Amino acid sequence: MVAPRNNAPARSPRWLRRTLLGAACAVAGGVSLAAKPAVLLRFSHVVAPDTPKGQMALRFQALVHERSGGRIRVEVFPDSQLWGDDDEMEALRLGAVEMLAPSLSKFGNAGVPEFEVFDLPYLFADLAQVRRVTQGAVGRGLLQRLGRQQMLGLGFLDNGFKQMSATRPLRTPADFRGLRVRVQASRVLAAQMRALGARPVVLPFGETQRALASGVVDAAENPLSNFLTQGLAPWQPHVTLTQHGYLGYAVVSNPRFWASLSQADHRLLASALEDALAHGNRLSADLDRQALAMLRRTPGVMLHEPSAAERAALRQAVQPAWDGLRRSLGPGLLNDVRNALITG
Ligand code: SIN
After folding, report:
1. What is the pLDDT of residues 112-132, one digit of tens each?
2. Which of 19, 39, 59, 273 is at a distance of 20 to 30 A from 282, taking alpha carbons?
3. Is 105 near ligand 1, meaning CB less than 6 Å away?
4. Distance (Å, rounded) from C-alpha 160 to C-alpha 130?
5. Does residue 269's CB lie within 6 angstroms of at least one atom of ligand 1?
6. What pLDDT band is residue 66 in, cutting at 50, 70 and 90?
7. Contacts of 179 (CB under 8 A, 6+ apart)
8. Residue 226 CA: which ligand 1 atom is closest?
9. With a 6 A CB cut-off, is 226 part of the ligand 1 pocket?
C-alpha cells in the first residue's frame, strides 16, 4: 500500500547515514556486526519502499535470504540513503555498492544514450507495449550495451506513466510556458520541456521535494506512486493526468562482483531477481491505481483530465523531442522499437 510522506526526511551526512544504516541492518537482522554472511549484496535505490522498485528490492532480499538459508545477505537502502542519482553509478563501478535499479532515463548521462529512447513522449500506449520492447530482443540488446560502461544489465522493471504536477493545471502547451520543471538528466526529457516552452532543471530525485518546497522549481513529472510517496502534494496541488511518458528501471550490478560468485550463486541470484522483477511488474499498475485513489481523497489535491483535443495539442508540441533523438541516435533503434511494438 502506497503511503504519502508529507515532510522531507531528516537528512544526515551520507557517511553517517551509511554507518548507522549498516549497524541498524545488522542489528535488525538479528546478527552481530562480526557475523559476516558469505556474500553481502548492497542494493541502493532512490525511491520509497512502498513503490514498485522498493517492493521489488524487498522481495529480492527475502527470496535470496530464504533460498540461500541466510548465506547470502541483501541489504536494501531506499530513499537515496546510501547513494543518490549523482553518485550511484560511479559507486557501482568502484564496488561501493553491488546492485542498483536506476530509471532508464539516467543511463544516457552515464554513457549509454540509447536508453533515452524510453523517454520519448507518447511512445507507449500502455505497459503491455512497454514489455514488448523490454522483454524482447530490443531489451536484451540494450542490457548488453550497459557492459560498455562496466555495468551488468540484469532486467527491466516498470514503474508506470508520468503525470504532470504544478501549482496550476497543465492541460495545454500554453500552460507550460515559463515554468521551471524538474527533470531527470536526459536530453530527451529536457527537449520535451523546452518544446513546451518550459525551462528544464535537472535535479537528483532526492532533492526534488526540497526544490519544489523552496520554489527553486515550479513543476515536475512523476508516476503517481513517486509523487505520493515523496510527499510532493503540499507543494504541487494540481496534478494533470497527462500520461505523457513512461518511467521504468534497469537492474544493474558490478560485473566484477558478479564474476566473483560461484555458478550456484549466480543461478540463485538470477532466479530470485527474475521472481522479484515479476512481482514488481505485477504490482506496478496496482500501486499506480492505489496512488490515484489516495490522491483523489487527499484534501487540497486537484486532479485534471485533459480533453482529447488538449492531449493532441500536447502530443504535437513535443515532436521536437523526437526529432532530436532521431538526429542523435539515427533511425535504427527507433525502427527496432517500432517493429517490436507492431510484431510483439
Ligand atoms: C525513480 O523512480 O527511481 C526516480 C525517478 C526520478 O528521478 O524522477
Report:
1. 999 999 999 999 999 999 999
2. 39
3. no
4. 10
5. no
6. very high
7. 166, 170, 198, 199, 218, 219
8. 2
9. yes
With contact defined as beta carbons under 8 Å apart, do 219 and 170 qualify?
yes
Is there an atom of ligand 1 within 6 Å of 205 CB? yes
pLDDT value, residue 344: 65
Closest-CA residue, ligand 1 atom 4, reads 205
Cα(266)–Cα(246) distance, integer angstroms: 30
Cα–Cα dist 204/80, whole Å: 10
Ligand 1 atom 6: the closest Cα is on which residue? 205
Report which of 45, 37, 255 is spatially closest to residue 143, judged by C-alpha positions: 255
What is the CA(268)–ligand 1 centre distance, in A? 28
Kindly report the number of other CB atoms within 10 A of residue 168's CB atom. Answer: 16
Our answer on whether the CB atom of 47 is closer than 6 Å to any ligand 1 atom is yes
Burial 36-58 (b: 16+ CB within 10 A, else e): ebebebbbbbbbbbbbbbbbbbb
Contact 46 CB / ligand 1 (< 6 Å) = yes
Instruction: For cell 505497459, name the residue.
Output: 127
Q: Which three cell numbers stand for residue 207?
A: 532533492
What pLDDT digit, counting tens, does each position of 322-337 carry? Answer: 999 999 999 999 999 9
Q: How far apart are CA 316 and CA 322, in angstroms?
A: 11
Would you place residue 320 in the very low, low, confident or very high pLDDT band (cuts 50, 70, 90)? Answer: very high
Q: Which residue reads 522499437 in cell numbers?
A: 337
In the numeric block, the cell 511518458 is attached to 245
Q: With respect to CATH, is domain 13-343 assigned 1.10.3720.10?
A: no
Cα separation, 226 vs 173, whole angstroms = 24
